[in-house]
């Protein structure tokens, strides 16, 4: 009887518990409510980034596209700040009037200033900024670029590139800060903080190990870019993951772009391990993972397989400039047939909603006015701090009344000063599209005229000069177009006029100051003995006074190399991160740089 009574009491207790225990009401956050209210089509539309030239406002509106980009050089006509703002505003309004009612996020590659817009200040490229070792400067540059972007209604910058560049024959070497991971991490994160403090989403790119690909001598073009990384996981973590850890955990970067390249022959865009397990789970990255330009089409299989592989690997938004309608169709089919789970779609869309909320895009990007004088002064400071003095035998600093013979392809050419990603994707040759820039010739002339001196540019006037300043360059290039098999000063991507300039300078029998205006070190071993001074000027952008500031001694040199300077073209063997490198192959060690 006692047992029966006990069970009776237990039964009564559990009944009473059940009656008073209410099913807890699930409180949805506003974003969760938004997500729950969206149709499948609206969700999938948010996961697409199409190109400006390939859409109309009607398309944006009907498909609820989440983002639009301008690739390198993809600009409105006229190419003015006002026209950019009108374009992005029009597209954003079309998006907000769509059934999902969500604001657009517009992305560009402002990799050294808002370089798609004609007439704005262009800062030195990253290989130059690496020589400054100046985090505070990078943060200020990030802020200045953020203002340039906001003034055009753009809230997403596909920068900084966090490549840890191991082979400077790579056409994107100048987009990297260094071969050394901790310097890449500190400068990259500083830039991200500056940019994001202006309400712009930064992008850490290209994940992962884009700067560690092997040189494939069997390929005539692109022997490095988009190639394969053959390293152990431990090597990859030590060399290439370091900048991403700091970007995520310290700088709170809001987006990460996947690399075209492969790790041990697996395309990054299909790597669940590196994108989901490492990036999202281990490093707790909570922003948007975006694919690179049609990169998923390099994955194996049909389009539906490529799209499913990338989305299931952890890509949240697809950069599909042209094929966005086909991609949307197969993405929907993949969800409907279960190849892509709804949980994955909801995770991706929630990340996108969260970023748009963080950036306060619904209330509209705060307007901004570009301060050209501020940008010029900041860029001029960055140029001066990036110059690296590698040889000086009593000829620098120049006296301001020095008569100079200024020769070489780089003396009066902003296109060569700025390199790739300048007005156009591959860069320009000439001054036409840089109306507010200062060329080296203009910078030298301003000083000479103020001090009763002359700047000559014709060889016939050589006898009138005290000193020869020779400016050697590379031709502008971007991405794989800039891959080279040789780092020669007189072939490959080096300017074809370099050889004759070098030959002529020797005949003049005057002190020679050589400036190299290139994205990367080139082999100078056979020529440097004829030079009395040698300065690495890099791709310094529009503000050439930063160069003359240090040449005339108004500012002291402070730059030091963030890349090893090789004597041989096999640059991957000379990186300071390569324990087996041969000292005989090195012209200047990483960290080299003289001062007055
Ligand atoms: C390019 C580059 C990437 C850039 C993107 C958009 O192919 O790989 O760095 O952000 O396309 O222009």
Task: Please describe the topology of this protein.
Blueprint: H1 2-20, H2 30-37, H3 40-46, E1 48-51, H4 57-63, E2 67-70, H5 81-96, E3 105-108, H6 126-130, H7 135-150, E4 156-157, H8 181-196, E5 203-207, E6 228-229, H9 233-249, E7 255-258, E8 262-263, E9 266-267, H10 272-282, E10 288-290, H11 303-313, E11 318-319, H12 324-336, H13 342-358, H14 372-386, E12 388-392, E13 404-407, H15 414-418, H16 440-450, E14 455-456, E15 467-473, H17 498-507, E16 512-517, E17 533-536, H18 545-551, E18 565-566, E19 586-588
Parallel strand pairs: 1-2, 1-11, 2-3, 3-4, 5-7, 6-8, 7-10, 13-14, 13-15, 15-16, 16-17
Antiparallel strand pairs: 8-9, 12-17, 18-19
Helix pairs in contact: 4-5, 7-8, 7-14, 8-9, 11-12, 14-18
The structure holds alpha-D-glucopyranose.
The CATH homologous superfamily of the largest domain corresponds to Glycoside hydrolase, family 3, N-terminal domain
Derived from helix and strand composition plus strand pairing, the structural class reads alpha/beta
* Quaternary state of the chains: single chain
Query: Mean of residue pLDDT?
Result: 96
What ligands can be seen in this structure? alpha-D-glucopyranose
Calculate Rg over CA atoms: 27 Å
Predict the CATH topology of the largest domain.
Answer: TIM Barrel
Q: Estimate nothing, just give the exact number of structural domains.
A: 2
Which term fits the overall shape?
globular
> Low-confidence parts, pLDDT < 50 over ≥5 residues?
16-20
